[in-house]
Fold:
Amino acid sequence: MILSIVGDSKSGKTTIVTKLVPVLKSKGLKVAVVKHTHGFEIDKEGKDSWKIYHSGADVVLSSKDKLALIKRQSYEDFNEIYNRYLKEYDIIITEGFNDAGKDRIVVLNSKNNLGRYQKGKIIAIVSDFPIDGYTYFKKSELDELIKFILDYLNVG
Amino acid sequence: MILSIVGDSKSGKTTIVTKLVPVLKSKGLKVAVVKHTHGFEIDKEGKDSWKIYHSGADVVLSSKDKLALIKRQSYEDFNEIYNRYLKEYDIIITEGFNDAGKDRIVVLNSKNNLGRYQKGKIIAIVSDFPIDGYTYFKKSELDELIKFILDYLNVG
Structure:
């Protein structure tokens, strides 16, 4: 099951995600979040793993309870990421990945931006102004939104 | 092709790895380094990706040119890591992963520790004291070591 949280920058997407994940986990579900970013530096400069990545190698860090893979890629494709890394999960939440076309919650700071997010089925909109024709939650109605999502995912 | 760099803590394993990788890359090879650690925090506390991981989800970060996967695992198994994430690489260097039993360079701070690293074929030892019966490089002889490794990997 894949659900996208898409919408405007700094509209509160991560707040929704971090509120939703523990609830899904409490249902016994294995959850992954895939976040699209415009460039990122995950590691700390000067650490061994940082030095190794910057020497030119892709890097896997592994300990008894955690694994990290940091690698170069030449393009972004949600379906490829899904096929390679995400098949083992019960629920996958994408934060961003608008173009992947998955069913989505759209989080808006401005009404005018709605058109950007119509590349997949909109199941609800989160914003501080109502938009006709859509299920709609205010940003302060996170508990209600979470309940709606659980119902949608059929894991309530 | 898999080569392990194993040995004592703070013996210079990462220095060897970060010197070796650019040379392998210059030969047109696709290189991954797998580093065993005793627990790590790859992300920066407070960042969105950190918050998402700590909310309970495994995390993929993706941008146009880079991907990071950070996930929980319940045990460490080199062969599983290899099969899941590393099949696309020409050369895989492990830093640590002594128990995986791969051919190895052993880097020593103390002669007495050699016995710990004999779970795979030792192709050379790096230390500041000679050890009978093994190909041997001083820590200052990195260029010679790199050349030896390239010959061993048959990519010289």
About this structure: Helices of chain A lie at 13-26, 48-54, 78-86, 142-153. The longest helix of chain A spans residues 13-26. Chain A has two domains: 2-36+76-152, 39-74.
